[in-house]
Each structure stands twice: as structure tokens, then as C-alpha cells.
Amino acid sequence: MCMGAPKKDKIEALETDPIQGLSSEEVSERVRSKLTNKTKQVIGKSYFEIFVTNIFTFFNLLLVIIATLLIIAERYSSLIFATVYIANICIGLYQDIKAHRLLAKLKVLVEPTSIVIRDQQEQKISINEIVRDDIVILSAGNQIPADSTIVEGEVGINESLITGESNIVYKTIGERLFSGSYVVSGTVKCRVIHVGKENYATSLQATARVQKANSSQFKKSLKYLFLTIGIIIAVIAILTIGLHYDHFVNDFKNEVGTFAGSMIAMIPGGLYLLTSFSLTVGVINLSQKRTLVQEFYSLEMLARSTMLCLDKTGTITDGTMRVMTLINKSEESIQSLELLISNVILATKDKNATAQALLEAYPFEKTDKALEVIPFDSRYKFSAATFHKGTYVIGALEFLDVENKKILLKETEVYSKKGHRVLALAKATNPIKRKTIEGKMKIVALLVLEEHIREDAKEIFSWFSDNGVKIRVISGDNAKAVSEIAKRAGIKQSEKYISLGDMSLDEVRQNALKYVVFGRVSPEQKEVLIEEFKKAKEVVAMTGDGVNDILALKKSDCSIAMASGADAAKNVSQLVLLDSNFSNLPNVVAEGRRVVNNIQRTGALFLMKTIFAVFFSVLFLITYLIDGVSFPFVPNNFYLWEMSVIGLGALFLAVEENSEPIEGKFITNVFRNAVPGAIMMIIGVLFTYLFYIDDVALHEGTIISMAAIVMGILPLVLLYEVSRPLNLYRSLVLGGVSFINISALIIGFIVDRTSGKHELLQIDFSKILAHNVMQLALIIVTCAALYISATSIIRIIRGRGKKK
Questions:
Q1: How far apart are CA 82 and CA 202, in angstroms?
Q2: What's the pLDDT score for residue 42?
Q3: Which value, in Å, is the radius of gyration of the alpha carbons in the chain?
Q4: How far is the C-alpha of 417 from the C-alpha of 113, rounded, in Å?
């Protein structure tokens, strides 16, 4: 009989005591039996995915086939192209692995934890260390780590991440909690009944982040672009082999050279690697700025954001509050009111910023046991507790059914105008029943709280304004108070505010585009606002830290969470600010813009060559059918173009700082530069043929040599164009690449003159020097002048159009 790992059902389930919890020995038994909650963590790409995406691609496969054919044909000098692609692959692997390791380290900082009871002690552990039968303590903001049964207390649960329904479900002793859902209100002790793969959701990671459809233009555009180019290359390759079959058999060495030249020139493999490289570098740079990127392509969506939606707390303010004053509206003493406030907060076990401020102001021990409680709920804006001497409520005055409400609201308006938060302490006529309070309430006291505005708030919001990003403040607090705070923080048009407290979702839709500040917003209303902004063609980024932000975070184009926020908010967000410092966000946006702008700029260099190669591959298929003239260029003829202009030029431009706002669509912007550049190159090569139109066959070697020089120099003109406006860095890149190209031509000329060999670039300088120097110079100058003139005119016309 084969002995293996213990079966998971070997240990019987326990009715664990909620006070004592499991013993250390019982925990060890479950660990040995693999009854732990450990699940496979997905952090960016896995090592397997890194190797597959960098090595086993369609274009790399095609390059391997071409390299093999060149080796068989003993055309070893044409294999230099492989060194560029191998170098690119190695760089890609190194950067991806580096990013993977950095993300793994950062992930630990935001890894969800749970409080369990073991050996009668509360212990904070990773959710992966939870074992079956553990007693886990859950409160508002916690994501449920494993399927459990409540053994003490009651909570409000949102199961939208599993069911898609956002309604709050209240559960009490004996009822089931499913992993992946999260606690909205209340605190409970629950016993874990399933762990790991046995959970209702196959793994916590899968349920924690229900991925929305990725709207990345990068991803979509590159996918369709590479698919289209791949089909074109495959068709041309099949036609070429079919038409040249006899030549392949009879003159394999020469035919493989021109076939390889055609195929290699068409492949934009470096564009894919450059995109991956740029995104990875962006992720690494942000990790060094304490930002965890959980979805690589979210960098693009954040960079394209035209609107940033945020809550007041933790963004405009730093999340800290202090109680300014307590206004007594009863015959009770101030001391008894302070004790009463403390009792309500301790009974409800609320842990939000408001509750913490109240406990800090009134740090008393509990003196009365609550019979029933309603923990704070963002939908109702209050919390409550029923004691022996009555039911007391702490919450927003607007949401309470109190006597003399209009008079009290007018009285508190003076505080709201100053940006202060006003809470009411009220006594209810009836006790809590089924999580509701019926009947009128009487105000006992008013609490005025002050929030601290970030010192750098004006600077941050000024940056967003200067960079064309609109700000919308969406808060659960009083609209007037939020508007005043937003105004003090420098948010433009913050006087345009509205309270959504009594509005239906249809009314919210009608008002979404009319205001800048929204107060008394429910979680469902937040989601509707994001939907309406997106319908108005805004690219919406959303920041949040609480469970009431989750619906909006999921709906946004780019979701950003604070590390100090709720587990569930972090799990559904694409970016997490590890220092919970909103002032880091401009750096994150700037990094995203750097990636997008630079890839759009350098992408044109790759596609220019692809368009050029496709044109001539098709043209020479036609000429072969008509007159037997086949594609004349070998891989060596493209080395200057491929290695220096595309390789070095694109690489250095891709890592440059660039925080300019992004305009237009990715694929349109890339082709806008690539097509004119390709036309310039096509005209340049066609001109070389026009000089010898009467006897192309006689002068074929001269034509190819001239064309190779044209293909080595003219791409510098496009490099100049995509580098505009020139600065010191871009000038150095342009000058360096130009120097390399000219130096390579000079070295080739010297080698050609001294040895008579021209294997490296396949350029016969002796033929050109004989009588073609002026013609070659004329071709290059004419094409460059035409291109620069045309692009300048287009730029002027486009500029005038924008002004209009």
C-alpha cells in the first residue's frame, strides 16, 4: 500500500469554542493534514508566463525558422539580426523577473490578514495560515477569507463579488459566510468550515479580484495589429515559397537570403518587446515609489484618465479628525453625554475615522451592555445601540427622523459652511428591532468635528488641473461641508455641489454632469455617477479605501486603493498606494504617461519598416510574376535601420521622462508617424530604381547598394520627427544614433576599399563611388525635404484646427 500525504478528511471537524479557539496542537495537526487556507497567489505574471510570453511567440518562431534556413544556407553574416532579438528577449526576461520579485515583496505589505483566536488569545495572521475550524473575528471592511459559520454576533454582508448583487444581506449566528464576500457593518466570530480549494469560491485570489473587461487601447491595438501583420506575413511567405519553389531548389543559398530579408523586415517583433519592456519598467519605477501595480495595463488607463473621482477623506484630507465641540441639547450633564457617546461606539464596534475620533475624545470604559446594535452603514449614515435606559443613535442629522429637524439643520449650517462635520446624538422612542428604528427621535447633543486638510492638497490638485484632469469629489458627508473643504484645497468649481441624500438613481443620472462635488452619496449612487461619467466619454480613475467604494472602483477605468483601507477595496483595485499617500498619485499618472507617450512615439519606427517591407514584398511578388524580378534585399541591408535607429533609438526614447497629456488613440497616433515615414522610405528606394529603369538587371548590385545606404540614413529623418520637440536628451539620442550610422558606413567603406569584401552590410561602395554619389545624395536630400515639408504642413493644419 502506497503511503502519501494525509487526506484532508482524516481529521473530523470540531465545534470550536469561540472563546478558547483552537489549541496550538490542533492547529499543527491541521497544517500537517494540509487543511490550511493556502491558495495559489497570482502576482503579475508567473515565471512560466514570463518565459512563454518572451520566448514562444509567433514572430520569434518565425525568426527561428528563418535563422535555421540561413544556417543551412551557410549565410552566417546574415545571422547578426538574431543577436538583436536575443538581446531583446534577455532584456525582457530580466525586467519581467525583476518586476515579478518586486511585486512579490510589495504584495506582502498589502496581503490580507485575519484575527483568529488560538489558545484563548487573539492572533493576527495571514489568511493563508488560517486552518479549518479556526475561530476568525471579522469586522467592517474585512473580506471573508474562507467559508465560515457565524458563532457569535451579526453582520451586514455584501456578496456582490460572488453573486453580482450589491444588496446588503444581514446574517447572524448559525448562518453561512462565503469567501470573497465582505463585511459592510458589524463584528462577528465565525468558525471556518472550508479552506483553500474547498471554499465556495475556488480561491480567494480569484474572487477577491473579479476582473472587469480590460479597456486598454495598448492591449487591444497590439493584439489586432500583430494578428493582422502575422496573417499578412504568412500569406506573403506562402506565396513567395510557392512562386520561387524552383529557385529554392536550384539556388537555395541566394533565395534564402532574399526570402529572409523580406520576412525579417516585415516582423515588428521589437515593438511587442518594447511595449512589454516599457510597461515593466513603469511597474518597477512605481514599486520604488511605494505603489503596487496589480494590473500592468492599468498604467495606460490611468495615464489616459480625463477625470479623477475621489472621496474627501484620505485624499483632500489626511483622514484624521478631532472633535471640536459638543453642543448639549438636553438636561444631561456633559460628562454623561461623553460617556454615552463612548458606550455607543464601543457597543457598535465601529472602526471608521469618525468612530476613532470620538473614542479619542471620549476614551471611557464601557459602562452599559447593549441589548441590540446597528453598526454604522454607509447607506443610512448612522449607528445605534439599545441599552437598558434607552436607544441612542449617532449619525448624520439629515438622515435621522428627529423633532425640529429644519431648525436644527439651519443651526448646523454655520458649521457646514466652514467645512466642519456635524453629527447628531439622538435618543429614539423605540428600541432596535430587526435592524431598524421606528418613530421620532429627540436630539440629545450635536457633535462638531474638524478634518485636517493635507498640507500639499493645493499643489496636488493644481497639478491635475494643469494636466487636463477634471476632479470630482464624491463623499458620504454633508455636501456643503465637502464643498467648503474642496474649495480650501484648491479644487476648481467646488462651489457646484449637490446632496444626493434623497435622490433616486434616475435623478442621480440626470444631475451627474452638472456638479463637481457630490455629498451624501450611497455606494449605489457612486456606481451610477461613474457610469454616467464614462457615458460622457470621460476616462475615469477612482480612488477609494472603504467598502462603500467597491462598486465604483469596479466600474471605473482605473481603480486606486489606499493600503490603509479595507481589504476588499484593495483586492478589487488595480493600483494600491502602499503609503496611503494621495500625494504620490501625480507621480503614478506621470509614469503612466511616460510609458504611453514613449511607446506611441517609438512604435512608429517599428511599423515604418513593416509597412515598407510589406509594400516591397508585394511589389516584387508582382514583378516576379511579370518579369521574374524578385525581392532583392537581404537581412544585412537592414542592419543600420534595424539595430541603431529602431534598436537603440527606440530603446533610449522609451525610457525618457514624459508627462505630457495623452491625445488621440494609440493605433492612430502610431500610424500617423509610421505611414509618412514608410512613404518616404518607399519613394527613396523607388528613386534608386528610376535611375536605372532602362537596364535594372545590369545595375542590380549598384541599386541594392544605393538602396541599403538610403535605408540606413533616411530613417534618421523619422527619428528626428518623433523626437520633436528636441530637448537635450532627445538631441543626444538623435546625435548618437546618427553618429553610429555614419560611422558604420565609413567603416564599411574602409573595409570595402582595403579588402574588397562587403559582407557585413552587403553594400558595394566601389560601384557607388564610380558614378552614383551625387545621385545618392540627391535621393536622400529630396526624400528628406519632401517628408519634413509634408509633416510640417500637416502639423500647421492640425494646430490651426485645434485652435478653432
A1: 43
A2: 53
A3: 34
A4: 40
What residues contact residue 105 under an 8 Å CB cut-off, 6+ apart? none
**315 has pLDDT over 70:** yes
What digits encode the pLDDT tens for the residues 542-551?
A: 998 877 788 8
Binned at pLDDT 50, 70 and 90, residue 123 comes out as very high
Helix/strand/coil (H, E, C) string of 156-167? Answer: EEECHHHHCCCC
On whether the CB atoms of residues 548 and 526 are closer than 8 A, the answer is: yes
Query: What is the pLDDT, as a whole number, of residue 379?
Result: 72
Instruction: List the domains of the chain with CATH numbers.
Output: 8-35+111-208 (2.70.150.10), 48-99+214-285+589-803 (1.20.1110), 286-316+454-588 (3.40.50.1000)
- Dihedral sign for Cα 229, 232, 238, 242, please: negative
Kindly state the percentage of the chain with pLDDT values over 70.
Answer: 92
Nearest in space to 787 (alpha carbons), one of 679, 682, 689:
679
How many other CB atoms are found less than 10 A from the CB of residue 716?
A: 21
Q: Which residues contact 566 (CB under 8 A, 6 or more apart)?
A: 140, 141, 142, 143, 182, 545, 546, 547, 550
Residue length, the chain?
804
pTM of the model: 0.76
Cβ contacts of 521 within 8 Å, gap of 6 or more:
474, 475, 476, 500, 529
For residue 4, what pLDDT is reported?
39
Higher-scoring residue by pLDDT: 671, 222: 671
Question: Beta partners for 436?
Answer: 433
What is the separation of C-alpha 107 from the centre of its chain, rounded to a whole number of angstroms? 15
Residues linked to residue 136 through DSSP beta bridges, in sequence order: 116, 190
Three-state SS string across 639-705, please? HHHHHHHHHHHHHHHHCCCCCCCCCCCHHHHHHHHHHHHHHHHHHHHHHHHHCCCCCCCCCHHHHHH
Which of helix, strand or coil describes residue 485?
helix
Residue 254, exposed/middle/buried by CB under 10 A (0-12, 13-18, 19+)?
Answer: middle
Q: Which range is least confidently modeled, 155-169, 222-236, 564-578?
A: 155-169
- The three-point CA angle 714-719-720 to 5° equals 95
**Rounded-to-10 torsion of CA 203, 49, 279, 109:** 40
Location of C-alpha cell 472603504: 546
**Residue 56 confidence (pLDDT) above 60:** yes
Region 6-12 average pLDDT: 60
Number of CB atoms found within 10 A of residue 428's CB = 21
**pLDDT beyond 80 at 761:** no
Residue 41: pLDDT above 80?
no
Could you say which DSSP state residue 10 is in?
G
**Contact present, 510 and 146 (Cβ < 8 Å):** no
Which grid cell sits at 34?
494540509
Q: Predicted confidence band at 108 (pLDDT cuts at 50, 70, 90)?
A: low
Cell numbers found for residue 471: 476632479
For the chain, percent helix, then strand, then coil, each to nearest 5? 55, 15, 30
Query: Letter for the amino acid at 421?
Result: R
Beta 382-387 vs 390-396: how paired, if at all?
antiparallel
Backbone angles phi, psi at 468, to 5 degrees: 75, 25
Other beta carbons within 10 angstroms of residue 600's beta carbon come to 24
Residue 369 burial (C-beta neighbours within 10 Å; 0-12, 13-18, 19+)? exposed
Residues 365-423 have pLDDT tens digits of 888 889 998 888 777 789 999 998 899 999 999 889 998 888 999 998 889 888 888 99
Amino acid identity, residue 350?
D
The mean pLDDT of 498-520, rounded to a whole number, is 93
Cis ω on the peptide bond leading into residue 431 (within 30° of 0)?
Answer: no
- 403 touches 467 (CB < 8 A): no
Q: Which among 190, 185, 199, 210 is positioned nearest to 146, based on CA atoms?
A: 199
**Quick check: helix, strand or coil at residue 804?**
coil
Q: Among residues 547, 565, 557, 588, which one has the least CA distance to residue 110? A: 565
Alpha-carbon distance of 638 to 640, in angstroms, equals 6
